[in-house]
Amino acid sequence: MSAVEATPAMRHILVLGGSGFVGSALCDALARDPQLAGARLRVPSRRAQRAGAVRMLPNVDLIQADIHQDAALDALLKGCDAVVNLVAILHGSAAAFEQVHVGLPRRLAAAMARQAVRRLVHVSALGVPEGAPASAPSAYLRSKAAGEQVLREAALAQGLQLTMLRPSVIFGVHDKFLNLFAALQALFPLMPLAGAEARFQPVWVGDVAQAVVASLRQPQSAGQTLECAGPDVFTLRQLVELTGQLSGHPRTVLPLPSALAQLQALVMECLPGEPLMSRDNLASMTVPNIATPGRPGLAALGLGPTALMAVAPAYLRHHQGCARLEAWRALHR
To answer: What is the reported pTM?
Structure first.
């Protein structure tokens, strides 16, 4: 049976986190996909007026809702054929990680049971330990692991058709990763860097979006955990140096020893707004953010990874020249 013949008809897909960086790319990919373009996408947001990236797509219904409320989830799920969960945070307290990465999946699974919706694609993260949340070194990874466990238990108990995707750090035009380092290097003459030897296998946001699309199109992906990683492994230091070169502001990178790295992260945590780095981030980076040998990945969905150098140079160029004001604005958005 072909993939086209195996794809069930989908009229309504709920995309949690659909107005964010990955969600915007996903909604665009779904709107362009020949098999799923006919589906209406329900994209909830607490502030629907800020979801400009997806507002103009013809198949998106923006709905103002609090997805952490059971009644809201029930209303959003009514009549849906599938759900994609992209909701995640990188910074916060242990309680915040628990609410977003564990509590929401638990509420979502229960609401899906009540509304008889079975298909779920859940986007998690590389580095999540298998079956032992407490063994992870950071609150972020522990909560991600616990959320995965909740959904696996739901898959067994209620027949949830679950596909789990684990991406490495995601890059793309509007990312807060490479763009952040480009902005910092436009502002400062030296780059003190915590976690300089941490390893990543960056994956393009377009590939992650296509992985979700392919998972929805391929029912046989249910029950699988797939890793989404690019073709190349970099240390954080290499990524920062490369970003400086591509943005026209190459800076000397000064790796910090552990004690100074912890101090730097603590200071950043105390600054107003979302921190650029936290001690929990440092703990997460002790786990290599790279693909596991032998684990199925993008190839299992019929996809090939896009190299960072095929995409990043084009969008990092806007940091070149007299970009200090724009860099400052990027840091304070």
So the answer is: 0.91
